[in-house]
Sequence to fold (164 residues):
Amino acid sequence: MSERETLTWELFGTAGRELAQMIADDSYRPDIILSIARGGLFVAGALGYALDVKNLHVTNVEFYTGVDERLPMPIMLPPLPNVIDLSGQKVLIADDVADTGATLKLVRDFCAGHVADVRCAVVYEKPHSTVNSEYVWRRTSLWINFPWSTLPPVVSREGQVLDA
Fold:
């Protein structure tokens, strides 16, 4: 197996606090944290507590199908966030990794024109990402083992992509 970056639950706790501190030190005060499910849910929760933001929203984007295997392009799955809820707000998009950047770009573009300001916070950013996140805990070119996705599912379910 090739070398990988491993994030433990304990190290994730450190990453979440340090990422929140970067955002606070930049004097950015988001009104809403928009998490990209699934990995971004953990990041958004950690940032929500650390930054005292209770207004958390979720969007689900289908892109990865396996280790370094993707769909041709990311797809936002329903239900989509209501742009009226985002209107005029300062939005922080939270995700676990900016790999290609395609997922973050899709969500950032979705928010553009509706929000007062949109920024991205990720635990990891790859050097080839097309989106440069404003807040990054670590940069790596390695595949990342996240504590929430390293073990196989307890049950396997087919057909998880929802029809629009």
